[in-house]
Amino acid sequence: MRVLLCLTLLVVLCAAKKKKAHQASVLAQAAAPSGKSYDFPIVLPAYHKDPSISVKDAHADYGNCLLYLEGVTVIVEAAKKTPKYVAASIGFGSDNGTQKYQFDPSYVKCVHTSRDQVGFNATKGLYTFTVAINVDKLDGKYGGSSKFTVHDKLIFDLVFNMSIPKYWELSKVTLKELHLTRSGDYLDGNIDFTTSVDGDPKFMKVNSVLGYGYGCSDTQGVFFTAPNNKDYSVGIALHNFQVELFGLYRNAEKDIIKFSRDVNDCVPTFSVGSSMGIVVAVVLASILMFGFLMLNSVQTMDRFDDPKQKQILINVRE
User: Fold this and answer.
1) Which of 17, 110, 266, 309 is the most buried (most CB within 10 A)?
2) Are 154 and 133 in contact (CB under 8 A)?
3) How does DSSP classify residue 255?
4) What integer is the mean pLDDT of 273-299?
5) Which residues form the signal peptide (predicted)?
6) Max CA pair span of the chain
């Protein structure tokens, strides 16, 4: 009887382990990018990256949208450690440029009717771009020493929304997968994002108006609290980033698609530095003009200048 009971328990435990392993395998397959790999920079949809992706025969989900991205910066914020911020750059221009990005037709979902029309009724809705990167081991360094290592995959969604006429914005960033390994004593342990987490990109200020795209050399970061340690947050910032949801120039016959000329840049026409330079220049010019006018207004007696007039005699007693 005891032998039979032991055998029954053994069978139940084996079945439970197999079920758990199967579920983990399914989750891993669901999270893994399923598309083809391409070199940086990231272009979504991957026009001109693959001959099979043409402007003429573009998928309906591509609408008339385009995203360009040269790199991603992963930022770790530690509330109780010094330094507070440590970053690692992934992709174009970073120390390790061997990373690839993945593309699958399901990674771009734009409003279908925006391909041929730019009116509000034809363009309103959500525009989603999935950025999926295969990451080699890349260190986040500070002061020459490694603080953490980014590896495996980085997957996140950029969700844009056009809910009111003539205005659109980045409304949500969803982090789907990211893996950071402890290096040294900066992290208390490994940080793994394996389930989707939504972030509020309000500080990134990615928005534009009808007829304009958006471009930025380096955006602000959007942060997500680490799932296993609330003392750490992980942020994502975009490097050399440009996006346009509709109104692109496209020529299907010549297989050409490109951004329009009108772009809302994250750096304004007058930055803080240029504004201060203009103010200082105006102040110095005002001082110079004031001094010149003061000297120009000085008047002397004519007799000092005309030798024919009677000279002034000054008696000096010794």
Assistant:
1) 110
2) yes
3) T
4) 91
5) 1-16
6) 145
Tokens 């003392």 locate to 231
Give me the residue label for tokens 């991957």.
46
67 three-state secondary structure: strand
Per-residue pLDDT at 194:
92
pLDDT band for position 14 (cuts 50, 70, 90): low
* Distance separating alpha carbons of residues 123 and 113, to the nearest angstrom: 7
Report the C-alpha gap between 134 and 206 in whole angstroms: 25
Structure tokens at 237: 């910032």
Give the pairing of strands 197-199 and 100-103: unpaired
Q: Which residue's structure tokens are 């929304």?
A: 161
**pLDDT confidence of residue 121:** 87
Instruction: Specify whether the CB–CB gap between 123 and 84 falls below 8 A.
Output: no
Cite the beta strand spans of 79-166 per DSSP E.
Answer: 85-91, 100-103, 108-109, 125-142, 145-164
pLDDT at residue 270, as a whole number: 75
Query: Which residue bears the tokens 């911020």?
Result: 85
Is the CA virtual torsion 194, 195, 201, 202 positive or negative?
negative
Q: Which residue has the higher pLDDT, 2 or 235?
A: 235
User: Which residues fall within 8 angstroms of residue 107, CB to CB, at 6 or more apart?
Assistant: 35, 44, 129, 130, 131, 132
Alpha-carbon span 34 to 41, nearest angstrom = 19
State the amino acid at position 138 in one-letter form: L
pTM above 0.85, yes or no: no
Radius of gyration of the chain (CA): 32
